[in-house]
Amino acid sequence: MEKNNYTQQINITDELMTRINELISHYPADKKKSALIPVLHEVQDAHENWLSIELQNKVAEILEIKPIEVYEVVTFYTMFNTKPVAKFMFEFCRTSCCATRGVEDLMDYASEKLGVKEGEITSDGLFQFVGVECLGACGYAPMLQLGDFYHEKLSKEKFDQLIDECKAGKITLHDK
Amino acid sequence: MGRKILLEKINIPGIKTYEVYRQNGGYASVEKAFKMTPDEVTEEVKTSGLRGRGGAGFPVGMKWSFIDKKSGNPRHLVCNADESEPGTFKDRYLMEYIPHLLIEGMITSSYALGANLSYIYIRGEYMWVYKTLERAIKEAYAAGWLGKNIQGSGYDLDLHVHCGAGAYICGEETALIESLEGKRGNPRLKPPFPAVKGLWQNPTVVNNVESIASVPWIVLNTGTEYAKIGIERSTGTKLISASGHIKNPGVYEIELGVSVEEFINSDEYCGGMIDDRPLKALVPGGSSVPILPAHLIYKTAAGNDRLMTYESLSDGGFATGSMLGSGGFIVYNDTTCIVRNTWNFSRFYHHESCGQCTPCREGTGWLEKVLHRIENGHGREEDIELLLSIQSKIEGNTICPLGDAASWPVAAAIRHFREEFEYHIRFPEKIKNRDHFVHEPFEKVRHLIKKETV
Lengths: 176, 454
Description:
Radius of gyration of chain A: 18 Å
Number of helices of chain B: 19
Distance between the termini of chain B: 54 Å
Largest sheet of chain A: 4 strands, mixed
Strand content of chain A: 5-15%
Number of domains of chain A: 2
CATH superfamily of the largest domain in chain B: NADH-ubiquinone oxidoreductase 51kDa subunit
Structural class of chain A: alpha+beta
Distance between the termini of chain A: 31 Å
Mean pLDDT of chain A: 95
CATH class of the largest domain in chain B: Alpha Beta
Low-confidence stretches of chain A: none
Strand content of chain B: 5-15%
Shape of chain A: elongated
Largest interface: A-B, 49 and 58 residues
Oligomer: heterodimer
Helix content of chain B: 40-55%
CATH topology of the largest domain in chain B: Rossmann fold
């Protein structure tokens, strides 16, 4: 995989390793590779939501598989990030039902409010928004995903409130 | 009020926890199943007529009977909770609010199949639901419903939940198996079918969440009782995910056979159209199924009432019908631009194509690009035929049904709303500066298209 200039501090804590071993135990002893996707989620969550090449190599080592087997999975699935992302990444569902209920207007609003275009990170590194494909919350549109959670039936006011809560540190990103 | 099977207990406070679920008759189907032989359990499911609730509608009991028991290889049951079809969000509701119902169904069904290691494959975005299931599974282990020698029956079962990471294609059963093996979600060539060579080359059955959650009721009340609900070959109840321009979007459990008109307009279900605007179109079974125009929604082309059943929704074939699919029921009013919506769906399929088969990898991209230029006022007169030509070359030419799913909505949109495409192409100045919505419903400009000749 192509080298880039992003660097990442790798820290596989004991707590993380315990969780990884628990996940590995869900599969037969000779099928460790099956744990790859759940393990990548855990590792990514513990590393500011992205996976550097070095970190992917580390995962390969833990699961006793070839690094290429990790790279091909990381690049296939959209939830894995291969470069740094903002602390709070808003992922707006933009598929039909959400579009019908006004997500495109809301994304325009997010762009105006945050002062960045889709995909860009704000200068303080805090915020970023992207459009993603159907998140399975069609009846509660428009909506976005932030970390492990959905924020549904959004309006401009609710989005403003969400940003305030992020700034005030009141948002839980991961359910551990 | 229609009969409730899956959502009957969903409003009981604390039903998410093992204690409350058990106090309300939970896990009784496992106890009953252990007094039966596995084949007797399968027979009940066959008798019930239960059809796969993920979209294809294949009879569940028959799928179970295909599992290879002769080879002696370990067998697996995998629950497909990768729910990603646009318009569908029913399984999440079930798993989030009554997780033990799915676990109970997994135990009873695994017993019928003789599986000792089973998985629930959930899409990665439903991370909090993954955690909910993980906790519920731990409770079930602690209470002796999972593990070795369950409740002294001599039957062993390990059940785990596994998460994906954002790939629609993993809802296809062989792609799901690949993903569960820690690989890219590329569908496999069939045969061999998963029932012979599935997870780790072992015999495997993959069933949708709703199908598995229906099994406890069937085992407890018999397949014959289940088959009495519904109409003809559409037996039982079905969860419908209702969304779009309706007053009360959400998940509803219906007895199959309710009329579409009642479902959209009754206060028990969708509650009618938002702002009382006219109904323009309906996608009844998730984004892949053909879209229906207003005049084919309440009545079939033959003039019969359109019912919420597998048969009635597909009445008239693709010419004038659609499909029940996964029950992703999307309602559109007159402010919807059909071209924009079709482009939106095509963008989805282009994004989600795994890239393995050329017709789908290239074709979905072409569809998206051509629709995008029509929607943005750069369409050409020949583009409509071009779209039909591309979609016909994808359909049926791919390993998995994603290619069909991507091509059907385009063909159906052109079939029923061709004038709207023509309007886009012939009056680009009228659509170029539009916002995301149509402020002038197409009905008001339809007369223009009739005057223009090419």
